[in-house]
Amino acid sequence: MNEAASGARRAARAIDALRRGWPFRIEGDGGALDLLAVESARDAELARFAGTDLLLSGERAVTLKLTNQRPAAAPGPVRLSDAGTGVAAALAIADPALDLAHPLKGPFRTVATGGDAAASAAMTMARHAGLLPAFFVREAAGDAETLCSIADVAALLDPARLEIAARARLPVAASETAEIVAFRSPEEASDHVALIVGKRDGHPPVVRLHSECLTGDVLGSLKCDCGPQLHAALHAMADAPWGVLLYLRQEGRGIGLVNKLRAYALQDQGYDTVDANLRLGFPVEARDFAIAGRMLALLNIPRIRLMTNNPEKVAKLEKQGVDVVERIPLALPTNKYNEQYLATKRDRTGHQL
């Protein structure tokens, strides 16, 4: 087993520990940290962990009007001294769903993280695990049962390790001759898929990047336009010579299903999509479009006609070496439940609607 594979395995074990409420250690330039995820922690495990400092994402820290230790273009993780006296107290700080019940927080004392690179990698791991980006933290001490480095996390999430796992014919409503192709990384739990519609020819295909949306794609949610976009894209591909739908397992713009539902609850309180994500402690855009670039490379598709209203997707795919020869808009009617969502896309995230 090569070093990248060994590192990816260590990171996968650490994310598993994170989800289960077990402590783990992450090492990086500038220091190593012992961490216990706030959301999955229990008081008995916290007592054994014996650390009462909290590590929050920069986005959540900005919401709480905390100041990081250094000026930065983007907010970095912030460590609060002795703020995590128990799981309930920590959740009151970390979970925005509890902000109304616990409006008064602090005063807090921020201290150096003890390892900025390790702290940033921990936030990526929390998002990948679908948990709130908040940890009990202490300086690394003694032996660690579960250990990884920031390089291990990068190896786990490296799209270059993605390979084709299986392919089969899949008749669908838009095309009875469609083919489905599944992609998998060895240590990763999420399988991405491509649906190839029509017959490949010498022209660039119509390509749609569609991020998984259980509520919209499967349940018919009216809060977003994901389901209608998915089906409209497939029918547009069927009308073209050929097309490829890349279905990316990046629910909720990369924050996961549970956190997306938390964002929905915040939207019910009056926050828009952008502010809801920030209050949760996540970036506005957390998806990795390098995955799509790798999928296209494995399918030997270097040039595409991209169906999107988001110019940022064009730029990010071109950064991966994909030649986007045309951007095709996708216009659909709104409803009373998704009007604000689409207005936020237009006004705050640069979508051309």
Automatic annotation (TrEMBL):
Pathway: Cofactor biosynthesis; riboflavin biosynthesis; 5-amino-6-(D-ribitylamino)uracil from GTP: step 1/4. CDD domains: GTP_cyclohydro2. Keywords: GTP-binding, Hydrolase, Metal-binding, Nucleotide-binding, Riboflavin biosynthesis, Zinc. One of its GO terms (biological process) is riboflavin biosynthetic process. Binds 1 zinc ion per subunit. GO terms for cellular component: cytosol. It catalyses: GTP + 4 H2O = 2,5-diamino-6-hydroxy-4-(5-phosphoribosylamino)-pyrimidine + formate + 2 phosphate + 3 H(+). Zn(2+) binds at C213, C224, C226. Its EC number is 3.5.4.25. The gene is ribA. Belongs to the GTP cyclohydrolase II family. Catalyzes the conversion of GTP to 2,5-diamino-6-ribosylamino-4(3H)-pyrimidinone 5'-phosphate (DARP), formate and pyrophosphate. This is GTP cyclohydrolase-2. GO terms for molecular function: GTP binding; GTP cyclohydrolase II activity; zinc ion binding. The active site is at R287 (nucleophile). Gene3D superfamilies: GTP cyclohydrolase II (3.40.50.10990). It comes from Sphingopyxis macrogoltabida. Residues 166-329 form the GTP cyclohydrolase II domain. PANTHER family: 3,4-DIHYDROXY-2-BUTANONE 4-PHOSPHATE SYNTHASE, GTP CYCLOHYDROLASE II-RELATED.
